[in-house]
Amino acid sequence: MNIVTISAKALFHFTGRGEKEVLKKILSNGFRPSYCKEFGECTGGRITESQIPMVCFCDIPLSSIRSHMLGHSWEHNGEKVEAEGYGSYGLGMTKEWGKANGLNPVLYFHYDDNSTYIKSMVDAQSILYDFFRLYDPLVKQSFSKYPLISQLPNHTREILNMYFAMKRVMERVQNCFSYNKPYEDKRDGRLYYNEREWRFTIPYDQATNYEIPVIFPSLYPELLEKKHELMKLIEEKYMLKFTPHDIKYIIVKDENDIEDIIEYMRSTGKYSEDQIKMLYPRIITNRQILEDF
Questions:
Q1: Are the C-beta atoms of residues 94 and 246 closer than 8 Å to each other?
Q2: Residue 283 pLDDT more than 80?
Q3: What's the rounded Cα separation, in Å, for the pair 46 and 39?
Q4: Boundaries of domain holding 236
Q5: Which of 57, 250, 253, 287 is the most buried (most CB within 10 A)?
Q6: Can you tell me whether residue 192 is helix, strand or coil?
């Protein structure tokens, strides 16, 4: 009896528009988390947009990955919609590596008025947003008037204690939100669910010294101006690293790319000849994927 496999034994990351040059950078420096827009318009505005620092992977067998790489089309409200693929170059990493580095599959949700989950999610976000819209100005005003906490009146200290407790709640709620994804795009019907996404995010907590925040443009628009600085900090401290043994596949467009990738790995000085020999048979082309899997 043949069993249809819907999960892969590897987690795949494709390089998108950057194509081969991005693949080379990953082989040299690791995966760089980038700010990605989530929620907002794709939920019909029901959930406020957030920009999350993350790296995305998919858990799709090579036998089913064609449309993910090359793109596909579908009908929505009687019209044909086309989506670009995620590119012809990428890496397949072992799931053991993914789990060891805190990657998790995202939790897909369907927004519907009858969905307790989505209603609770929206309500929690709304309550927290309203709280901080009210108290952020008051806290700033208090610290401008009383630079030292010891100078604050007792009732103001109590308010601050509540404020910082709610901050901690907000951090944990947002860390959970960072692993949520709509089942489909409200605008064009794209089924995100088919991407079987796994995600690495940079937690916003004490362990990371609160350095890399999730950006809420409607709540803290000033953070948008700091994205360049935040990306530099990510490159310095929060790259997602791996060893040659963590690589299960190196995906290239065609045979002409194979020697180029091999020579590039040699040039980095990060791969020994034995490691390159180990990785050579793990390099596969788009044609091999489309014909052999």
A1: yes
A2: yes
A3: 8
A4: 10-110+179-292
A5: 57
A6: helix
Contacts for 93 with CB less than 8 Å, ≥ 6 apart = 10, 11, 12, 13, 57, 242, 246, 247, 248
Q: What is the mean pLDDT of residues 101-123?
A: 84
Compute CA 101 distance to the chain's CA centroid, rounded to the nearest angstrom. 13
Phi–psi pair at 92, nearest 5 degrees: -110, 120
Domain count, the chain: 2
Q: How far is CA 124 from CA 47, 120, 169, 184, in A?
A: 11, 6, 10, 21
Contact (CB, 8 A) for 50 and 38: yes
- Measured CA to CA, the distance from residue 34 to residue 41 in angstroms comes to 19
Three-class SS of residue 150? helix
Residue 228 in domain: yes
The tokens for 292 are 């052999």
Which pLDDT score, from 0 to 100, does residue 235 have? 96
Residues 252 and 283 in one domain: yes
Tens of pLDDT, residue by residue over 206-217, are 777 789 989 989
pLDDT tens digits along 92-105: 999 999 999 999 99
Report CA-CA distances (Å) from 17 to 87, 100, 256.
7, 28, 19
DSSP, collapsed to helix, strand or coil, labels residue 27 as helix
Residue 3 domain flag: no
- The answer to the question of residue 154 being in a domain is yes
> Average pLDDT of 60-68?
92
pLDDT-derived band of residue 7, with 50, 70 and 90 as boundaries? confident
